[in-house]
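Good day; I would like, with your permission, to put a structural problem before you. A protein sequence and the structure tokens that stand for its backbone fold form the material at issue. The record follows directly beneath this note:
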Amino acid sequence: MDEGYIKFHCNWIEKEPLPIGHLLEINRWRDTLYNLGYIGVYDNGIGFGNISLRFNAKTFIITGSATGALETLNENHYVLVNEYDLVRNSLTCTGPIKASSESLSHAVIYECSPETNAVIHIHNFELWEKLINKVPTTGKEISYGTPEMAIEIKSLFEQTNLKAEKIIAMAGHQEGIIAFGKTLDEAAEILLKRS
């Protein structure tokens, strides 16, 4: 199973965690999505799902790699993504843990949609089947966490009504769905109203 592995060069600068005050909202929604089974862990131990929140114009907070299996998160499970480079397939993050394997997809959404402040990536087979080719959908040949996926998402912004729909079905990433919005509440509502 090609899941849960970081596929980009991660320049991880280990630092103290962000103050818990910065994480209350993101952690609240992460708990809710975990309890709904949209973020979690497969029987083989591979975790899935991640959530991010814009920190400032050029950076965002995201759940760390391999945190899907954890029922609750604290400040040691979040990281700040500082920069990324699709050409070099690299990402720089600072914090107590490496950034999620899906960080490039989050980064390109923030780049393409400056009004977006929150991105949620979940797994749910029934919802994924329902959304494939009904909402902006990435190609079947495009693997998660790669520059190709980020480029595909950029193309969806240019060639579909993604900016208005704010939801993506990932055809090449079984069960994978991404929603985004101006707030975490909006991004989650987009997902939940489709369920």
